[in-house]
What does this fold into?
Amino acid sequence: MMNIDLKKSKAVTGAEAVANAMRQIEPHVVAAYPITPQTPIVEYFAKFVADGVVRTEMIPVESEHSAMSAVVGAAAAGARAMTATSANGLALMHEIVYIAASSRLPIVMPVVNRALSGPINIHCDHSDAMAERDSGWIQLFAETNQEAYDLTILAIRLAEHEDVRLPVMVNLDGFILSHGVEPVEFLPDEVVKEFVGKPKRVYPLLDTENPVTYGPLDLYDYYFEHKRQQVEAMEHAKKLFPKVAEEFEKISGRKYDFVEPYKLDDAEYVMVALGSTNSTIKYVVDWMREEGFKVGALKIWMFRPFPKEKIQYYLNGRKAVVVLDRSASFGAEAPLYEAIKSALYEATIRPRIGSYVYGLGGRDIVPEHIRKAFMDAIEGNLLVDEQRYLGLRE
Amino acid sequence: MPVNYIDMARTFKSNAEQVGIVQGHRLCPGCGAPIIAKFTLMTAKKLGFEPVVGLATGCLEVSTTIYPYTAWTVPYIHNAFENVAATMSGVETAAKSLKKFGEIPEDRKFAFIAFAGDGGTYDIGLQSLSGMVERGHKVLYVLYDNEGYMNTGNQRSGGTPTGSNTTTAPVGKVIPGKVQIKKSIVDIIGAHEGVYAATASISDPADFFAKVEKALNFDGPSFIAALSPCTRFWRIPDSATNSVSKLAVETKYWPLYEIDRGVYRVTRKPRQFKPLIEFLKAQGRFKPLLSRPDADEIVNKLQEYVDKRWERLLALEEATKDKYLR
Amino acid sequence: MALKGWKEIPIGGVIDEPGKSREYHTGTWRVLRPIVDLDKCTHCMLCWLYCPDMAIEITVNEKNRPQMVGFMYDYCKGCGLCADVCPVNAIEMKPETEFLEE
Ligand SMILES: Cc1ncc(C[n+]2csc(CCOP(=O)(O)OP(=O)(O)O)c2C)c(N)n1
Ligand code: SF4
Ligand code: SF4
Ligand code: SF4
Ligand SMILES: [Mg+2]
It folds into this structure.
């Protein structure tokens, strides 16, 4: 786990941590609409605006569709623009989520992960983020409130890098992180301000001397070329992420990468997951290691672009890999499992692999579930084509 | 001095690039939409504004920006169909914020102008527009009302008039085309607080320019609904764009009025009106209706409706005189 | 026009050449051609004002009065709106077929 100096840290919720990252970033424009469990982010930030703590102009839009539309307008105009949402809000934005990416606007959006309706539910799962995985956004996942804070700041630099120019979703688990109190070490305001710097403007609309046209009708003769550019930008994001992470480490002492290995050196059985569940997995790894099992974990920090090479590097040659998904893909394999399995196609020594879906709609995941999945792997009881469930009643 | 077109001609000559929309766009011959864009932009430029335009998906958008071409020489953004008001809220707020942060000069005089069709305004974009107006963004929203989803081939919208023949509300053996009455969009927008809303017609350029001027100088959001003849689907000659617009005003079909913070003012009061049938007869889109056996009955009802609406407008003008809200 | 590759075009679908549509000549759509009789013309500017294609060419004379010059046939789509709004009927719409030899 990340080294946090408890003396320098404050106990805050994930929402408060992210809202404070936004305060320190001080974007020109924030347009947002409340939805549980993202709401406290908007509330904290609205208070900063009301109290004059930030100069940011806030647009209290009438829907998430308009939130995303307004930040697209603001970002195209040349402003640094942010929003935040969850589940149904993200789904309502969907159409414009794609447009933000294809217009190459570096919008940073914390997504407080919540199960998509229906039936309606307010608790954590990753179905909201997974529905956007092909939208052209960079997707980062936080395990802790500290990471949610850090990744929000780091995301600005990655998004705005001139060779990237892509929007970024910073995912944090609904309630578990957003409403859960954890120690967070905040960076000094000036340090964050200097780190994010002034936004580099590319084709700003407000430059009336050099008028540009955004959003033309792009038919079969050029649409494909523009899509190819987006593919390339994702490649650039992969190349540049380590550099941005290194610079972030210089100001924070905290190291980020595509993935985080945990007790992997000699591990024969590895569990892969996104988000806050990794804390529980680490706990179980420690517990099982005390009993002599060679288990370890691989946390995915960056889901898009998908860090295939890193995954191959860490998983090649292991005895078995267990993939945990907090969302399902009806009629196909769960999204993280599918991606990991596909990455392992090229591995020289392919591990056995198994898929476990857990935690839908906020269903608790407890150490015993994780231990059970590890034991399946250890006992040679994994079936590549079988999707299993943790915490589900038969 | 109000802006006038002789003076505009003097300023812009044949240099359309100084107006903001140029030659080579692919709207149908005689289409009303580019005329509305041109009238609006010329007024803004003449008054010393720097226009920044936003477009909703629709004929004006698709036909002016077929990649890699663009007919615009002012900054332009198209986002999607239903969200031009939200998009321009963002653009306007960005300018405000960048001024506050000292990143662009305080004295930049932008004119944020959204153009949208009736589909993008009466129907799918109404929420976004209401939000923009309610929040008070200083954006001029220009509706070019061609009374149907024309870009997609003449489907019915909330702005399609009763009896018009469209592909989704065709005049059939049983149903006489669209049966509902066109929404009163100016009243809907004018009913928000602190807004300037008006109708306009290209057949009355002086009234049109005066309203754009008033809108741009208005301290808050503004809305202009301009009737936009669609030569193709109104089934009128390419050359009839202006004459049909004129008939619309002369038959009370398209009364020219404004609502300034709740105060109604009828800006043109023709001494004599023509019967509504003259407006209907001039257009092929009403032909299927007019050839029905019950045509007279329907036309009489519509005539009654426009007469009553006109009386009501005059009454509202009287009742709201000088009673500005806010 | 040769189509460009993905490395040669601006990102984000942005068009950074304002007014590039002028490279596309809509005059080829025309079936009727407007012809002006400058002897009749009063230079009222109504045709200039209404032309949906900005295809009326004008100048400003020494008295600072705008003057009708003619049409930009590269762009004029032949809608006839100019002829319709002309208060003195100075514009006549003639079939393009009459000009085939040119
Ligand atoms: C969300 C969404 N739904 C439907 C469409 C398809 N569509 C594009 S333009 C259009 C109609 C536009 O009508 P209007 O706003 O009146 O503009 P016009 O084309 O008539 O000028 C429709 C239905 C779309 N682009 N986006
Ligand atoms: S279909 Fe109608 S509105 Fe669309 S370009 Fe043609 S004339 Fe204009
Ligand atoms: S409308 Fe007629 S009179 Fe007026 S400038 Fe044009 S050609 Fe001349
Ligand atoms: S015919 Fe139409 S396009 Fe041609 S000059 Fe006249 S008004 Fe313009
Ligand atoms: Mg329409």
About this structure: The radius of gyration of chain B is 19 Å.
